[in-house]
Amino acid sequence: MSWAGPEDVYLSTSLASYLDKKLLVLLRDGRKLLGILRSFDQFANVVLEGACERVIVGEIYCDIPLGLYIIRGENVVLIGELELNKDELPSHMTRVSSAEIKRAQKAEREASELKGMMIKRMDFLDMD
Fold this sequence. Notes:
This protein has one helix at 98-122; strands spanning 22-27, 32-40, 46-57, 60-71, 76-81, 94-95. By secondary structure, it is an alpha+beta fold.
């Protein structure tokens, strides 16, 4: 038996207020997706129209178009509304091509791996 009346339908799902609005969806694997929310269900599975993945490396970024995108709810960490006609990034950020952002990602990953390797090699010093 449900205690919610017809006027309480929108109280049960907070995503209803985001329908047809531009959203930022943060996923468990760290990806950031932007798009217009077109549909959702009780498991937070969402459908984004005009979706793109925003990749940010340092001071550069790229929006990789994905089109109509379905996201499984178990992968959603955070959902937030963005202003439709406003740029969300600070003015010092530079938009680059997808090839350039992939090169920057690779360089960042290699630097991180090198740092991890150096920390492992220096572990024997035990600075504490």
